[in-house]
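Reopening this ticket.

The earlier resolution said the output was attached, but the attachment link was broken on my side. Pasting everything inline this time so it's all in one place.
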Amino acid sequence: MRKYFSMALTLAACAFSACTTTAPVDFALKAVEQPLSTPEVEQMVNDLYAKMTQGERIAQLHSMYVGDLFTDGKLDTAKCKALIPEGVGHFSQYASQADMEADEIRDMVAQVQDWLIHNTPNGIPALFHEEAISGVNTLNATVYPQQIGIACSFNPEMVALKTQQTADHMREVGGFLALSPMVDVCRNPYFNRLEESYGEDGYLSAAIAVGFVKGLQHDGLSTGIAACTKHFLGYGGGHEADEKELREEILFPHEAAIRVAGSKVVMTGYHSFKGTKAVANADLQKGILRDYLKFDGLMVSDYGSIDQIDNIEDQLERGAASLNAGNEVEFPRGANYSRIPEMLEKNLITEATFESAVKRVLTLKARLGLLTPGAKLYAEGHIQFDTDVERQTAYTMATQSVVLLQNNDVLPLKGDKKVFLTGPNANSMWAMLGDYTYQGMAYFWQHREIDNMHPRIVNLKEGLENRKPAGIELSYTRGCDWTEKCELVIEEGGDDRAHIYNSWQYSRVIDGREEIDRAKAVEMAAQSDVIIAAMGENAMLCGENRDRGSLKLPGSQEDFVEELIATGKPVVLIMFGGRSQVISNIADKCAAIIQAWYPGEEGGNAVADILYGNVAPSGKLSMSYPNVELNENICYNYAVEQDSRIAWPFGFGLSYTQFEYSNLTVDKEVAANAEAIRVSFDLKNVGDMAADEIAQLYVSPTSLRSQFLKPIKLQGFARVSLAPGETKHMEILMSPQQFGYFANGEWNIDPGTYVVKVGASSQDIRLNAEVTLTGEKVTMPLRTVYFSEVQ
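Inline output:
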């Protein structure tokens, strides 16, 4: 059996399968205690700090855009002397600000680092950072599927492979910090940044986050890239939750990324937490993060968030409030922190607070190797992005992220058939690319035109043509646009760059650049055997600061699908985008429904292979999929019964085959302080096609009145590959701590009887058995076991 990291990580140990790359991440069992500093590093930092001028120290807490130092593509030393005479700590989104080849980015970084090393008092290199949820955020770099789709793969091991590839390339072009991953637990299906998250479940989000951080950091900082988990805490929903839910679930991905994977940078959000902006919230940063989680890494602001502390108008006081709360670096520039000398002079901050912030920056740089004499700060020679290996990773991830929601035996497409393809997302790269891709950010934030060649983005039409088997006759016309008028609404708050739009930019839409003839499309549909309708949103309709006020299909897309259905031919509805779409008016009339999310550069080939049956769909929903407009938090674990407002539940996804679950055994009695609970069952492919199944492990209380657990909660999963007729015996080790809960400031495990459930989704439980925890109640400051382990 192919062994995936599915659920095995304890604070003392992490069980992953090794990634098959040139320098595999070590996922063998190991101690988790990974302090940011060591005695040697601490001495180095103390010695350096003592030699630094006050200006140099302050500069370490600032960032800027590297383009500010260049004139006509060349480093302007006069600007360097004027702007960074005593250095600078960081450079913001350095690789995505212009269309530059990898070698050009590296050369730009090399010039700046060389100047800093030879022209500032202590020659301290800067920390260049970039976004990385879909790969290195720059021209020509591989674009992997968006995070919400990746979560549907339930495959942290593949995530680790992807981020290791990302880290290798970012190091080549001089980057050492990724402002990724976003690990917000997002329970509001309406949330416009849901696509950047891993969905509604704390356990799944934590497992994927650990894979992301492990791969990115190469299981350590000396050869990898520092991860930055964001947004602390509850920005994507949950900041309003009660303390129990907050600590058990909303905090879970941050906690696991820090305590299991060793993440050393955390970013707060734009939101308020219990009435105070997160960036200036001491209870959040010092209370929960430092005191409770024992985080010893670096705290950074989201872009412009210090300026948005709305109850403090004075820049000096805003900066002081953030520093005193625990925030150490101001992004993307440093206007508020430039006034640190005044803050110190007026005793608004202490020398100890200031010194601690500077030393944390220096310590991170030391751990990444930037302070080592002769450090390799970038690669030499030609740098090649988007290799065949990375494209294969992107393709595999895309095939695993696609979710088949409905299939009335129309898929896979076999035999002689006339297939008609239509819709705004059929022949567009924007169906493949979400927010925080290089293309999406360049188009929205920087208003640059983008093509599909850097790297090559394969759309659905191209994929269907590339993979077309004998007997399939494919025709196409666009049929309708995403919208007939601009639906974009720029929301208040968030990144200030969104608000520089002038009146014509507010009405900006993505141009499909094709003729739209609806009547022709309906006529062609009527002459076909099967209709494929590619619908959904795009990067100008949903994303950071972008919204359109509805979860229904944009514009007149739903009406167009109704016209296609009226032809009497089976309609395969494929939805692309970063969140659910409410399609209750048309769902039952469609022959098949696929949620493809934003599947990345190989998305067209991946979806085509699923449609043609070259690959069986295997994705499972990482969020509850609504059938009505919802703008509120909702989660499968609120009740055992499915909410009537949900069309498809968390964990749901169809295949082209069927799986049989049997022979569940669970230890009957285990001490509450024991190390493990043994769970086993058999899983069989009873169909006639090879496929992967994602078996899911849930726990429930036997009494909601006396046991302080959610009605049902994911506590493990295993992605299993099965040939037709093949059976695999699954063995999983759980921990009694997974039956625990937060109360009175600590983790509690009560003796009692609980239910272990195994199934194909949160609403498709195939097997269940009881386990009784015996002995005395167990309490501990923090849980030390976070995941189940597949044996």
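Reporter confirms the inline version is readable. The CA atoms of residues 117 and 123 lie 4 Å apart. The mean pLDDT is 93.
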